[in-house]
Design a protein that fits this description.
three-stranded parallel beta sheet; 328 residues
Length: 328
Amino acid sequence: DRRRLLWMGGRLVAAGALLAGLMWLYPVSRAVALDRGDRLRNTLDTAHAFSFHLSALIRYWDNDSSIGLTLVPLTILAGILGRRQKGDWVWLAIAAGSVLLALGPYVFLEPYAAPLRLPMPYRFLHNLLGGQYRTPVRFAFLAVFGLSVFVALRGQAALERFWLSSRLRLGLACCLLLLIIADYRLLRPFPISIPVDYEAYYQVEQDPRDVVLLEVPLGVDRGVAMFGFAQQLTYYQSIHEKRVPSGAHSRLPGQVVDYYRSYNFLRAIAGEAALEPVAADELTQLTEEWNIGYVFMHRDLLGRMLEQEYLQQLPLFFATHPSLCYWQ
């Protein structure tokens, strides 16, 4: 079969062209050679904490680490009853490979008294990316997709054995799809919150000066570690359009958090320390260095984390710096 060889050769050429196109869009060599010296490098233990659990194949684990209870039995059933379809093994291989990567850098087995730490293929990917990817459990979604396609292909072949009308087969397929969707909990509502619309932010937006707006409490989230809390207050930056020293930024270097923690004033408004006499001088220094023009204190957020006595000290502290525009 010359025709078959040509057909296979054409597919290989097409796959190579696709791979070359992807490398041209995002050069792999540059990504591998990227200097990550000042980036946060996640450890294997951190990746393990965000990995898929083997027991999640047969029971619900948590919101992000579960593929439901129906896909694995349906895959086994489809493999036994359904006839082999063209290309179905590819989807099964994608699902199996995704599960292996989702398991993270290692898994613990307990065949004896002492647990056995078994290394997994994700270690290679972890080292290749310089520890920048920290959530192996996300590969579980690819496993769900691959298993769903495999079940659909084999299930279609199984239904063809029976004399069923096209409408009945369509109805059965829709019921199976709805079962997978419900079991994977895709219909569960996503938790949201409605932020308060503060008029003061609109007043600040009218100020043409390039100043910093300091939110109290202060919060910096770098993906795997946090300094303070309430980093969600950066939502309001789209309204006031001023620079802010808080927020969420994945893979921030550890030196950034060390810089914040070197100031008692910043640790105090982050809820990690009490105000000390040096905090007044530090506020004066940061006001000049950062060009702080406004301070917004959210008493509702502070009240959840700080004691009432300390909460009453903050307004008095900021009142000693009349150069700042202060809201609470």
